[in-house]
Amino acid sequence: MPLPYVLLSAAVSLDGYLDDTGPDRLLLSSPADFDRVDAVRASVDAILIGAGTIRADNPRLLVNSAERRAARVASGRPAYPLKVTVTATGDLDPEAHFWHTGGEKLVCTTDKGAEVASRLLGDTADVVALGADLDWRALLEHLHDVRGVERLMVEGGGRVHTQLLTQGLADELQLVLAPLLVGDPAAPRLFGPGEYQGGRLRLVETRRIEDVVLMRYEPTAPGAGPVPTAADRRWLRTACELAAQCPPSETAFSVGAVVVAADGTELARGHSREGGDPVVHAEEAALARIDPADPALPGATVYSSLEPCARRASRPAPCAELILRSGARRVVTAWREPDTFVAGADGTGVLRDGGAEVVVLPEFEALAKAPNAHLTA
Predict the structure, then answer these.
(1) β-pairing, 105-109 with 82-87?
(2) Model pTM?
């Protein structure tokens, strides 16, 4: 099920604390960074904060620039992004600025919380009940499928950031580091205790903005079962983009593949017909670059833009068999192999019979098919 692109945004001090709250709040960002945040808000479809942030900060959560609002309207979007808050109890202050500024508002809550929030807010906001407990994946699916949200900016608080990152639902972390030392042990931290990915996040960008530094990171660790993570989507997109590098062919598909260790380390990548070999397959090329004794292979995920082949005439072993021999037991793909060259191809069946988990993300099918349009028309 497609989900919005989830961007976590926060500012921290040098000793790791979030902005202080309350009337004497210590602002960590610079004026130029506040303008950057305003630009990011203007670029997204929705902005989300936790109910605790509404209680502590009483934010308006607006796009402040009139020019940016005008540009949104000119592009066919509302002047302000949808404002979303999440609460388990529904205990929300109807007088808070959040409800009386900007555009549409949405409360995502539990069944019991919906009764409380609806009574308190009336028609000030739409209230959506997500079940007996808060389910972040269900919430994101609702935003995408019902509200049309493609890009979601999350501005806190720390508990919300923690839950999204530990559940593998955050696509990006935008972190601003301020040249301040707070030193207060009671000040809130950006993230709380939780099971985070074991490896390093990928640094996408660093940028100096007056006296603060913006750092953008992407999670890298694959999922561990049938439920895809944000990192799974990013790695599969990379595999699909690799397929576009294949020399064109009238007799074979263009495919890209990436092999990623459980901690998010890229082990190898490859694409069809690379290196002057007219019959090499993407998964075959990637696996050939990895030492078969590499201890990371058994826990690795293989990302392939097309379902790994189950039968082939050009090599002794098809790619599904090569993956099983490697020890990898999780495969993420965008597109099941059609009957164009091999009737009844079922690499997925071969992999599953061999004990591998196969995850298909159909939202990437169009991207995987693009370099093969001349074969599937």
Answers:
(1) parallel
(2) 0.92
